[in-house]
Amino acid sequence: MSITPSNQNITSLLKKESILNALERGIRLDGRKNSDYRPISITLNYAKKAEGSALVKLGDTMVLAGVKLEEEEPFPDTPNQGNLVVNVELLPLAYETFEPGPPDENAIELARVVDRSLRDSKAVDLSKLVIIPGKKVWTAWVDVYVLDYGGNVLDACTLAAVAALYNTKLPKVEIEGDNVKIIKEEKTDVTPISYPVVTVTVAKIGKYLVVDPSLDEESIADVKISFSYVQDGRIVGMQKSNFGSLSLQEVDVAESLARSASQKLFEELKKQISM
User: Fold this and answer.
1) Closest CA relative to residue 254, chosen from 218, 215, 216, 201
2) Which of the four pLDDT bands, split at 50, 70 and 90, describes residue 104?
3) 73: Cβ–Cβ under 8 A, 6 or more apart, which residues?
4) Four-point Cα dihedral 246, 250, 255, 258, nearest 10
5) The dihedral sign for the CA sequence 52, 234, 27, 18
6) Quick one: average pLDDT of 46-62?
7) Confidence category of residue 9, pLDDT binned at 50, 70, 90
8) For residue 111, what pLDDT is reported?
9) How far apart are CA 88 and CA 114, in angstroms?
10) Which of 5, 148, 152, 160 is most buried, by the most CB atoms less than 10 A from its CB?
């Protein structure tokens, strides 16, 4: 659990000037172009005790997601659906100024955006989580831990959650009348997720738009906008952060940059999972 100051990283005026001067020349301080994503790695089954897990490294950012399944009764208004719960924690070890404590608004916002992308896209098929309609369902707990805070944690959290859900196989269930026998040692081929979702964040720094902002870039960004996509290119979620504004033309440009970058994330997922 963590308490995270609203301005986690303070960048000096000299560093800010360097970032802006580099962008003026069409390149970023780390050598990337404005449209470039940092290197990504995905390691599945990282947490052995979880039903499914994935460790994602995005540049200097590192995130671990784990899925646990629990048998529960369905909600009365959704008897034919299981449950999905997403939690995100910004661990104190992830950054110098993070402190122990209950999840603050930053962690809660991250969890809600990841949850919305999974839920509103229908990527997680809640009907797959039904054991006996109206009586017993699975609740899929998706816990995401930010281990190293290096910028753009939202994209990393979504990627880790999706990979962990693909890594999760539902246990074998035997039903005789009202008796349910869960055989956790035997897994089926059924995963809670039907298709992947990725999130791509674009930051506006001065008059420049950059994909996948680093921590220093985030700290001087006027505004960030994040788009979530499914594979056919549909936008299934959007989130604006910070107090700055974007013109309609800038939103169009940012979306075009994000859409193009989303293909890299889908390709990285394809290397690890069957989609």
Assistant:
1) 201
2) confident
3) 135, 136, 137
4) -90
5) negative
6) 96
7) low
8) 97
9) 9
10) 160
Backbone φ and ψ of 32, nearest 5°: -80, 155
Q: How much is the pTM?
A: 0.92
By the 8 A CB rule, do 46 and 55 touch? Answer: yes
Distance between CA atoms of 209 and 224, rounded to whole angstroms?
9
Q: How far is CA 39 from CA 30, 154, 156, 206, 219, in A?
A: 12, 16, 11, 25, 20
- Assign 148 a pLDDT band (cuts: 50, 70, 90): very high
Closest CA to 202 of 155, 159, 266: 155
Instruction: Please check the confidence at residue 177 and state whether its pLDDT lies above 80.
Output: no
- Report the C-alpha gap between 228 and 238 in whole angstroms: 6
Percent of the chain with pLDDT over 70: 96
State the alpha helices, DSSP H only, in the chain.
Answer: 13-24, 105-120, 153-166, 215-220, 248-272
Residue with the bigger pLDDT between 180 and 109: it is 109
* Dihedral sign from CA coordinates of 10, 15, 21, 27: negative
**Residue 65, CA distances (Å) to 76, 87, 270 in order:** 29, 10, 18
